[in-house]
C-alpha cells in the first residue's frame, strides 16, 4: 500500500554528520568532472575493483562475482560488480548520476586585456545562476593535454587545480546601477562576465599577450612547458570549501552538490556491496559527463557508453542484450527541489519535499522524468527495506520542468528507470544547499536498491 502520510524529520546524528563530512571532502576534491572521475577511480581501486580499457578485449577476463570499472574521455565512468548469473538471465541494477555541474569554462585562448586589466576569457556552461558567481573567490581546475612521446596517442592528460583563488567577477557598485535591487542583476554573458585576473602592466611583458601569460601559468600548474600543451578543458570554481551550518547543524553548503552528491551516494552504495555475497544479477554504477548541456557527447548519457558496456557484458548486442535490459532497473539519481520557505508558492500544493525528510521520487507525466508507477514502486520498496519513507515531487504544471539522464537512457535503451534525488535549495548556484540527514539516507536507499531481488 502507498504510504501517503508526510515524511518525518530525520535526526542529525553522528552517522549522518560523519557521512556528510566525508561527502563534502569528496566534492571539495572534485572541482571538475575529470577530478570527480579520478577520485571515484582511486576509491574503486582501493575497494578492489579492476580497471578495464575500452581499447582492449574483455573476453575471458571477467569473472562472476568480481568487480570492474571503465572510464571514457576522463569525465565518465561505469563500474560494476558481476552477478553469478549471465546478464541475459538476471539483468542488472543500475544507479546513474552525472559528474558535471553548471560553471564557467575557459575558452581556448585563455585570457584577454581590457583597460589595463587582464581577464580570463570565459563562457557559461549549463544553466548556472550567473549572479551568484559574482564577487566570489574563484579558482581554476580541469585537465591539460600534454605532449608525451611515450604514449601511443602522443599526449597525456594532466589534472590541474590552482586550489587557491586567482580571479573574481567584480560587481558594479549600486551607485552606478541604481535599479539592481528592484530589477535584479542582469549580466551580459559576453561583455560583463569576465573574471579579473590582475594588472596587465604587472603580468604581461612586451611582446607577450594575455593568452600567452595565462597559458604559461597553466603550464606551471601542469608541471610542463607551455609549448607542450596541445589542448585543455578548464573551468572556474568557488575556492571556498564546503561546510555544515545551522544552529542544529542541519545544512550543507558547497558547490557542485548537483550532482556530485549523487555520484558519491552511488559510489559508496556500490562499494558497500563488496561485503555481501554476490547476487545473481549484476550491480552497476554509471557516472556521465555533460548532463547539464544535454548529454550529447561521446561520453554523455546519450552516447553509446552504457550500451557498449552492456553489450560486452552480454557477449554482444541482439537478443542477449535485449533480454538483459528487460530484466533491469535503473535509479537515475539527481537532485530535487526542496520546498523553499521564502518561495513556497513555486511548488505544487500537495507535493512539497522537505529538507532532512528523506529521498525524493521525481514525477512528470510528460516524461521529463522517467518515473512511472512500476519504477517508483521499486524505489519505494528499497526505501522501506532501508527503513526510510520516500517523498514525492511533482513540478507545478504551469512551470517548465527540468530533466535528467533518466529519460535519455530509458529512451535510448528501453531501460526501466525511476528518477530520484535529495531535496536541495539554490540549485545551479555557485554554492548550493542541502540537508545533512538526507545524504546518508540516500546512500542507504541506493544500497537497499542494489540488494533488492
The quaternary structure here is single chain
* Major sheet attributes: 12 strands, mixed
The stretches of 5 or more residues where confidence is low (pLDDT under 50) are none
Measured distance between first and last alpha carbons: 19 Å
Indicate the mean pLDDT.
96
> What helical percentage do the residues reach?
25-40%
Order of helices and strands: HHEEEHEEEEEHEHHEEEHEHHEEHEHEEH
Top CATH class of the largest domain: Alpha Beta
Strand coverage percent: 25-35%
CATH topology description of the largest domain: Aminopeptidase
* Strand-pairing-aware structural class: alpha+beta
Shape: globular
CATH homologous superfamily caption of the largest domain: Zn peptidases
What is the tally of beta strands? 18
CA radius of gyration is 23 Å
> Which architecture of the largest domain would the CATH scheme give at its second level?
3-Layer(aba) Sandwich
Number of helices: 12
Count of domain modules = 2
